[in-house]
Design goal:
Layout (H helix, E strand, L loop, with lengths): L6 E6 L1 H18 L6 E6 L3 H9 L6 E8 L12 E4 L9 E9 L3 H12 L4 E9 L12 E5 L5 E2 L15 E4 L1 H5 L1
Parallel strand pairs: 2-3, 2-5, 5-6, 6-7
Antiparallel strand pairs: 1-9, 3-4, 8-9
This protein binds inosinic acid.
Inosinic acid binds next to strand 5, helix 3 and strand 8.
Length: about 180
């Protein structure tokens, strides 16, 4: 099968993603040039974004991974966040930037930010590629946002539906028949 056959329309092209990443990388390089921050990538959706983003930065960053789950295989956030894989390092006294693919209800990040405050991080900021503002439940604001997206389920460039479509090079909207089946 061809993944692209399931896409109704492209929302953000590969070229646009490249440009967005360049702008975010520049801002982050400026803001963190002497801070050696820890970029915490939330698996798995943000992996493609992280790897493209850091390659465009010319300041030191450390990279760590966390895996959390609040969705299962469905399309609705449950708000019940579980840590599936925790960090291997201490964040006490460190500047942390969460690297996210998309902030939807915001419940995942709210949970993580509170957790990292109890772990005594020096600062905790959010960098998200996509912001689905209309669906926000938790009161959080991202510090670095690539672009906003409408309240539709999007896939590609790391984002999945039931573990599929992550390897599309662009962000697109699925044809309704794909998730209705
Ligand atoms: P939140 O806790 O509702 O903000 O959920 C954030 C997480 O839900 C993201 O990191 C994604 O993994 C997932 N998610 C939210 N919206 C979408 C979407 O449109 N497509 C794919 N995954 C999504």
């Amino acid at each position: 099968m061809k993944l692209s056959d399931d896409i109704e329309r492209v929302l953000i092209s590969a070229e646009e993603l490249e440009q967005i990443n360049g702008e975010l990388a520049q801002q982050l390089s400026n803001d963190y040039k002497d801070k050696n921050p820890i970029f915490v990538c939330v698996l798995k959706g943000a992996v493609l974004f992280l790897t493209d983003l850091v390659r465009k930065m010319d300041s030191p960053v450390e990279i760590e991974f966390m895996d959390v789950s609040s969705y299962g295989d469905g399309m609705e956030s449950s708000g019940d966040v579980k840590i599936l894989k925790d960090l291997d390092v201490s964040v006490a006294g460190r500047d942390v930037v969460f690297i996210e693919d998309i902030v939807d209800t915001g419940q995942t990040l709210k949970y993580l930010i509170e957790l990292f405050k109890t772990r005594k991080a020096k600062s905790v900021k959010i960098c998200t590629l996509l912001d689905k503002k209309e669906n926000r439940v938790a009161n959080i604001n991202s510090d670095y946002v690539g672009t906003t997206v409408p309240n539709e389920f999007v896939v590609g460039y790391g984002l999945d539906f039931a573990e599929k479509y992550r390897n599309l090079p662009y962000i697109g909207v699925l044809k309704p028949e794909v998730y209705e089946n």
